Predict the 3D structure of the following.
Amino acid sequence: MLEIKNLHVTVDGKEILKGIDLSIGAGEVHAIMGPNGSGKSTLSYVLAGRDGYEVTQGSILFKGEDLTAKNVEERAAAGIFLALQYPIEVPGVTTMTFLKTAVNAIRVARGEGELDAVRFLKLVREKAKPLNVTDEMLKRALNVGFSGGEKKRAEILQMALLDPALCVLDETDSGLDIDALKVVSDGVNMLRSPGRSMIVITHYQRLLDHIVPDRVHVLSGGRIVKSGDKELALELEKSGYADYAADAA
Amino acid sequence: MTMAARNIKTGIAERRLIEEAGAPGFSHAGWFDKARLAALDSFEAAGLPHRRLEDWRYTDLRQILEKRLTKTEETSGRSDAPAGLLDAVDAYVALIGAEGVEGDFSGLPEGAEIVPLGDVLDEGWVRDAMDASVFGDTDAPQAAAIIDLNTALLGGGVAIHIAHGVVLEKPIHLAFSGNGTRHLRSVIVLEEGASACVIESHQAGANAFSDFVSDIRLTRNASLTRIRIQNDDRSAIHLASDRIVLGEGAVLDGFLMTLGAAVSRNQSFVRFTGEGARATVNGVYALRGSQHGDHFCLTDHAVPGCESVTLYKGVLDDASTGIFQGRVLVRPDAQKTDGRQANHALLLSREATMNAKPELEIYADDVQCAHGSTVGELDRDAVFYLRSRGLDEASARQLLISAFLDEVFEAVTHEGVRDILRVIASEWFVQERSRHHE
Ligand SMILES: Nc1ncnc2c1ncn2[C@@H]1O[C@H](COP(=O)(O)OP(=O)(O)OP(=O)(O)O)[C@@H](O)[C@H]1O
Ligand SMILES: [Mg+2]
């Protein structure tokens, strides 16, 4: 599904990712952990195609195609979905209008044709319910005045509606209370399927109790310094990143 | 005044305007001829306004009209969509040019009149409405003085009268089009308790110079929705001044949209003369290329207990220039005034410029007034966010710009018209879209 080789990325002339290798098979869930500032969000933005993140070396293949040749919306249509660490507030655009525009834009790009209003509404209701996203939230401007937890649930709703092949969840657990964590994790688990891969960025082992990963990687100083199975997360919880930070420095 | 003194101020642009105007499209020997001559004297003495006058510092009309004299063929451009879209509004349509007023008004209810202005100059209501003495001590004499040009060279116009208590269900659509130089006036009078919606659309051709004045009088408890869409050719010059007087309990719901013209200047002078009246004077401007759009708004709270809202929002692309000069004046007697004024602009390009000068002048103590002004850019993070959900860049920009403007559209009370205004605005983006894809 995703094949990253020797990826180097600079932001504003500063090298942030310094040779990442990562291979994710179809249906796999990989967790990425690592200290603050190690480049986790940077990696997620590079995958999404955000401006200002320059790939200076290496390659990213997604479903066998060069991802870096595609712009942001082409990547979205191809199946990349990034749930942001800090979802952006968009005043004046109601969540419902936004969801409809996004769903139809993606459907058209995938050659599926737009959904009519009735079918769209049915789809939203169906996906929103398990995430506790209320009609009242859908009527409000996108993310404006949403609590931290509401923003994260809205991100997962978008993910469910856009039917991605690779989900990148950047600290989707931060700011969630225990109940919301359960709701969000259940929502994510419902989306696990043999055709869909996930990258779960988190600081906490707790999330990985709910969303059990196939692999865990430690990103430090712009490199993956250790990889292992889900036990690695437990180890990190005990020992912290001290050993790895030293390696990277 | 001696001729020599006159000639010092009356320059080549002024003389050309006077020559171009020729004879008016109507004859009138009475009071108006005197007014015309007096206005001509004043105009000749003052000349066209220029940048050394504070109210005109961003729009040097004298220089602009001097340049026009030497201007050769311009490339023109305009979308015809607004005119076409407005045709969808079920309205009494009046086509207005220097030649007169055309339209079928047989369906108008009793008590509602749409007539050529030249035919009714002697009617009391017309004369009263054109009498500016109610604005005598206006706070913006430099801006108001340009109305002399219109009075001096008036070629025609339209007069609308809605009698006591008459409620007009269908809007009136005044469609202005034409070429060359035109000085036209609209007089709109709503008697006590009357209610109407008047849409004005402007579609002047290449290199046109249009000079409009609207004299609007809302008598006690009258209610007017007034929509003005200026979509002149992008080589035209457009000058418009509204003098609006609101009596006790009257309601004005005003909205204007500036899309066209190379240079446009819109002035609104709103004056409250009766308590408990409410005026909304809102606007949207969307400019590109080297378009220059100047909006000047003076709201004069001369009596207590009135409410005014002025909200302008604009998007400026390419090397366009937007100007907003607003003033809310609260006179000493005008206690319990609620006056709000704001301008918010979005710059879509680094070469675009916005000049905003909102001012409050308050001489009463028990009032609620606020003003504000912001200039910003499209939120790049938001554009990325929307694109990451599959919207192409043009759609993402359009959605964000529409969201920015929507607050002003939302305030238009006439539902059918509101929806069409939104579509007209989205037409502007269609043009943007095709350009961004080049
Ligand atoms: N525009 C920028 N210019 C310069 N440096 C930047 C820029 N954006 C990010 N960085 C730097 O890149 C590094 C990696 O940032 P990133 O946000 O990817 O870290 P992270 O691993 O997601 O951290 P956290 O756990 O705190 O979310 C940081 O040192 C950050 O300061
Ligand atoms: Mg981060």
Notes: The radius of gyration of chain A is 18 Å.
